[in-house]
Design goal:
Elements (H helix, E strand, L loop, with lengths): L4 E4 L3 E7 L8 E6 L2 H10 L15 E8 L4 H12 L21 H12 L11 E4 L19 E4 L2 E4 L10 E5 L6 E2 L3 E3 L8 E3 H8 L9 E3 L6 E3 H9 L11 H4 L14 H5 L11
Length: 283
Amino acid sequence: MTEPEIVEDFFGVYLLYCINPKYKGKTYIGYTRDPNRRIKQHNRGTWAGGAYRTSNKGPWKMVMIVHGFPNNISALRFEWAWQNPNKTTRLQYLNLRKIPRKESEYKFKIRVLSEMLRVGPWHRLPLVVRWLEQDYYEEFPTDKKPPSHMILTNGPVRAKLLKKSVENVATPNIKCSLCSLNLNSNQLTCLNTNCELVTHITCLADIFLSPGEFIPIEGDCPFCGIKLKWGDLIRKLKGCSHCTDLPDAMDDEREENSDDDVICTQDREFVNTESWLLDDEDL
């Protein structure tokens, strides 16, 4: 069996597919910080924390998940828009509608996703589209593929929460490599360990952004020249690192920031505001 990829600070929006003969083909879209825990809840029912809409209709399979959102608010708004493509202003101009008798509910959800990944603000986020069940894999049409900076992959994934650390304090003796002013606690460093770049978030963002853009995607390090993805830089700033295994002790940590504490909303205004793209300190 393929070893799961470990992802820290996980925020994901998933698609369920019902394999119960009575409800086969039904789908459900949800948000989670722990996909393995969440699919068990759905299949056990509401008493275990599953959703009312999926209770007593399983078994369900989590066939795909989109992750890489910077925070839970951005993921929840993506979830709402995917559930309600005809209500969010982001997609109304596409007039997305299900074609009776010609398109299954599942294929419609995949079609909606292919459009969402290519329009603002989602098209600038460092998202990963992960197929968890290869038997349900759907190829995106050539003209509907996600932006090149997004990752299309397959295979299992396990979420790992970041351990709480002492907040970094300002370092007055260290200057920004780009503006020469004192650095605050939120400072970016190059992913190249041999590079000496240390900079304010805004200073590097100004270099990566083109006129009219608000969220960086990628750019070249002004010191060593390597290609840097903005999402990787922010994850490094938050303390994320690449891990290969997940200790059993993480089971206790999953209780913190679990899906049970998430309050969802159906407020359209909640979905269409710009402020959710990054945490305040991230840009």
